[in-house]
Design a protein that fits this description.
- It is a single chain.
- The strands form 2 sheets. Strands 1, 2, 5, 6 and 7 form a 5-stranded antiparallel beta sheet that branches. Strands 3-4 form a two-stranded antiparallel ribbon.
- The chain is an alpha+beta fold.
- Helix content is 22%, strand content 50%.
Length: 155
Amino acid sequence: AVLVGVVMIVTIFFLNGCTFMPHSYTSGKPIKESKVEMIQHGKTTKDDIIQWFGIPATIQKEGEKTTLPRQEPTMIGVFAGPLVVSESSFELFSSKHKITGDHRIYAYYYTKASGTSFGLLFFNTMSSHSVTDKLLVLINEKTGIAEDYIFRKQE
């Protein structure tokens, strides 16, 4: 019985071994700050926005919740799950604009995440770094004009 226990411990030791796993994830297209600076409140058109940034990740309507796919590094690779973007995005604009049924938020996201995980027997560690850029553009669908925008970089 003691020999079986020793064999099991040695087997677990050799099977567990050492792991080193780098991982990275990119979502969306990079949002160029030079293009963001071209947006003029009340002058830039919806067509300009689409030409400069492409098709939005989401088009939000007030009162509707929007979900986006999300992935982030974990100890064993990449975790995938939904990211809910709620109607609170309109609250970011409501202090300066009277939001109507004609308004939409064209949302653009860019995320770049990377990290490494290291495991040795029962010791595990992970380091990761991520950058997320978010551009929200308030569009009046009736006029086709970009009334406002918010751009944020987050590390």
